[in-house]
Amino acid sequence: MASSSLATQISPAVSQFQNLNIVRGADNLSDDVLNTPAGPFLRSKIHAVPQGARVAHIDNLIHIISSNGTTIDTATFSKNTVGRPNIGAPSRRSAQFSEGYVVSPYWHNTDSSPVAFFSTTWSVPRIPETVDGQILYLFNSMEPDTFESVIQPVLQFGTTPAGGGNYWAIASWFVIGSDVYYTPLTQVLPGRSLTGVITLEKTMKDLDTNATSFSYNSVFEGFPISSLSMSSDLELKWLQESLEIHGPTGPTELPRGKTTMSSINIMNQDGLRPTVTWAPCNATGVTDNTDGFGCSIVVNSGHNGKIDIIYPLQ
Asked: pLDDT tens-digit profile of 240-287?
C-alpha cells in the first residue's frame, strides 16, 4: 500500500483539455457550446450513436456505421486544433472551482505491445446536497500520444449533451478531432457498483502502406446499451482515472468524501501485465489543490490498482 507524493508535472493529456475557454471545431458563431467529458464542443459536432452501431475513422472522414453495415452519418475529420478563441465554454454563473479535469492521475504505456484491456470499478456517489445545474463526470479513459481522441465509459450527474437530469447515468463516449460520439444513457442509483472496461478488439495492418489500424470498445459491464466500438489509426497509450466538473459554485454541489477507483486492471496485447506507476495529477499538477480536491494512489499498480478521488467536503 503506497500513498501518492506530490506531482510536479501536469499530465499532457489533461493539458490538452484543461483550457476550457477555447472550443475545438468552432466554425459557426451561432452554434451552441456544450460541456462534454472532453471539454466544450459545438452542439453540431456532437453525435448520438444508436445501440449496435460503431464509429470508424477512415482517412479524412468519420462514419457512424449501423449493425447492418449501413452508414448512418459521416463527418469530415479535422485535427485536434482549437477553434476561434472568442467562443468560450458555456458559463451559468461565477463558479468557486476551476472547471474541467480537476483530478486526473495518469499512466503512459511505453511498451511495444499496446494496451488491450483497461478496467476500473467504482460506486455511484450519493446525489449532491445542492443541485443547481452542475455537471459532474467520473471515468477511466484512454488517449493516443497526439491527444486528438479519447474513449471513455462515463458516469455523469446532471444534464449533458447525452441527456440526463438530477440523477446519475452512464454512457460511453468517443472524441476524435472536433467531433464527439456517445451511446444512449442509462440511469443508475447511488451505491451501485460500476465497472468501466476499454478493450482493444483487434489490430489490422495494411500490407500496402504498412499502416496499422486499431479497433477499441468501451462499455460498462452488465449494460450492453453502453457499448461503443470505434476504429482509427491511433494507438491509445495514455490511461487516466478522472473527475471532471462544470458549473459547481460550492462544495455542496459535489459528493462528499471520496470516490475509490478500484480493481484497476491493465493487460497488454501480448498477454503480459505492464509495469504501471500512476502519476497523481490534477489541473494544478499537484496532489491537492486550492479547491480542496485530492488524489491518493492507494495501490500503485495495473493489477488490482486503487486510486481515491477526494472531494473538498468529507
From this structure: 999 999 999 899 999 999 999 999 999 999 999 999 999 976 544 445
Grid cell listed for 67: 449493425
Phi-psi region of 110 (alpha: psi -120 to 50; beta: other; left: phi over 0): alpha
- Dump the DSSP string for 227-289: EEEEEES--EEEEEEEEEEES--SGGGS-SSEEEEEEEEEEETTSPPPP---B--BTTSSSB-
188 Cα distance to chain centroid:
18
Low-confidence ranges of the chain (pLDDT < 50): 1-10, 12-13, 15-30, 81-94, 283-286
The C-alpha angle 264, 175, 207, rounded to 5 degrees, equals 90
3-state secondary structure of 109: coil
Domain boundaries, the chain: 33-84+95-256+266-271
